[in-house]
C-alpha cells in the first residue's frame, strides 16, 4: 500500500486592472473566504499589468483524499461537502465571485477542511508561460457541485439518505438557486458533521524492526527457577524444593561423617 503525498499550490496570476479579473481580485481580497483560496499579495508588473499572488496551500486533491479516507461515513461527507455547497450558494446569489475550476481543484488540508483553488477569470500565468488549458473547467459553482457529488458517490449506497441526496444533487446541477438551497438543506439534515480521520493505522505504513528481547534480570531468573525447577542434562527438571531437601540431607550426612571421624579412638 502506497501513501499519497500532499501537494503545495503556490500560484501567480496576471490580468487587466478592469473587468472580470480585477473584480475577482477585489472581491477575494475583501471577502477573505475560509473555503476558497485567498489572495496573499497584489502588485503590478513593469508594463502596468495587475499581478496577484495567491496564498500557498498545502493539502491533498479531493479525489486522492477520498482514496485515502476510503468510504466516508455520512457525517464525514457532511463535513466535506457543506462548506463547498455554502460557497456555491454564495456564488449563485452574487455575494462571492468565483473563477473557473474543476472538481479536483478542491484541496483538503491536513485538518480535513476543503478549499477551492479556482482560477481568476480573464487571467494568465504571471510568469509569462501559457497556462494549461483544461477543457473540463467550468464555473466555480458548478465545479463545487460536482466535487460535492463526488464525495457522496463514495458514501455507502445502502445508507437511507443516499436516494434523497442523489435526487437533490440531480435537481441542483440542472437547476438554479432554489434547487441549490434545497440541496444544502437535504445534506445538512442527513447527519451531524463528523471529523475527517486522516491518520492511517500504525501498521499500514510503519515498519518496525524486530528487536532482540532483553536478557532476564536476576530476579526474573530466580522466579523462573522457583516456578519451573532446575533443568537437568537429560531435559527434565527437578523442583527446587526437592533439590534443597537433597542438598540438606547430603550436607547432614557429610557433617555426621566428619563428626564420627573426628571423635574416633
List the helices and strands and how they pair.
Elements (H helix, E strand, L loop, with lengths): L6 E3 L2 E4 L4 H12 L7 E6 L5 E5 L2 E5 H8 L4 H20 L6 E2 L4 E3 L5 E3 L7 E2 L12 E2 H14 L8 H12 L3 H14 L11 H4 L12 H11 L1 E2 L5 E2 L1 H23 L3
Antiparallel strand pairs: 1-5, 2-4, 2-9, 3-4, 5-7, 6-10, 7-8, 11-12
Helix pairs in contact: 3-4, 3-6, 4-5, 5-6
Helix-strand string: EEHEEEHHEEEEEHHHHHEEH
Quick one: biggest sheet? 4 strands, antiparallel
Could you tell me the number of beta strands?
12
* Strand proportion: 5-15%
Report the structural category: alpha+beta
Low-confidence stretches: 200-209
* Mean pLDDT over the full residue set: 81
Largest sheet strand order: 1-5-7-8
Query: Counting H and I runs of at least 4 residues, what is the number of helices?
Result: 9
| Oligomeric category | single chain
Q: What characteristic shape results from the CA principal axes? A: elongated
Distance between the termini: 91 Å
DSSP helix fraction: 40-55%
Radius of gyration: 36 Å
Amino acid at each position: 500500500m502506497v501513501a499519497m503525498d500532499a501537494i503545495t499550490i503556490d500560484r501567480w496570476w496576471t490580468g487587466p486592472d478592469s473587468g472580470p479579473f480585477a473584480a475577482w481580485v477585489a472581491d477575494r481580497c475583501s471577502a477573505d473566504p475560509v473555503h476558497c483560496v485567498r489572495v496573499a499579495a497584489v502588485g503590478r508588473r513593469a508594463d502596468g499589468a495587475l499581478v496577484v499572488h495567491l496564498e500557498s496551500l498545502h493539502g491533498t486533491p479531493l479525489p486522492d483524499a477520498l482514496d485515502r479516507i476510503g468510504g466516508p461515513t455520512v457525517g464525514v461527507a457532511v463535513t466535506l461537502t457543506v462548506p463547498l455547497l455554502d460557497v456555491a450558494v454564495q456564488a449563485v446569489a452574487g455575494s462571492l465571485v468565483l473563477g473557473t475550476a474543476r472538481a479536483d481543484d478542491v484541496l483538503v488540508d491536513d485538518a480535513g477542511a476543503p478549499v477551492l483553488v479556482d482560477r481568476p477569470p480573464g487571467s494568465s500565468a504571471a510568469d509569462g508561460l501559457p497556462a494549461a488549458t483544461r477543457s473540463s473547467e467550468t464555473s466555480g459553482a458548478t465545479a463545487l457541485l460536482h466535487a460535492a457529488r463526488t464525495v457522496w458517490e463514495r458514501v455507502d449506497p445502502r445508507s437511507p439518505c443516499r436516494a434523497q441526496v442523489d435526487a437533490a444533487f440531480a435537481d441542483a446541477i440542472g437547476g438554479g438557486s432554489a434547487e441549490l438551497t434545497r440541496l444544502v438543506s437535504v445534506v445538512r439534515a442527513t447527519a451531524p458533521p463528523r471529523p475527517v480521520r486522516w491518520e492511517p493505522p500504525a501498521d499500514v505504513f510503519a515498519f518496525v524492526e524486530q528487536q532482540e528481547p532483553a536478557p532476564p534480570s536476576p530476579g526474573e531468573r530466580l522466579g523462573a527457577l522457583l516456578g519451573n525447577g532446575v533443568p537437568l542434562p537429560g531435559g527434565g527438571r527437578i523442583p527446587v524444593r526437592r533439590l534443597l531437601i537433597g542438598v540438606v540431607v547430603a550436607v547432614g550426612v557429610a557433617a555426621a561423617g566428619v563428626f564420627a571421624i573426628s571423635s574416633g579412638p
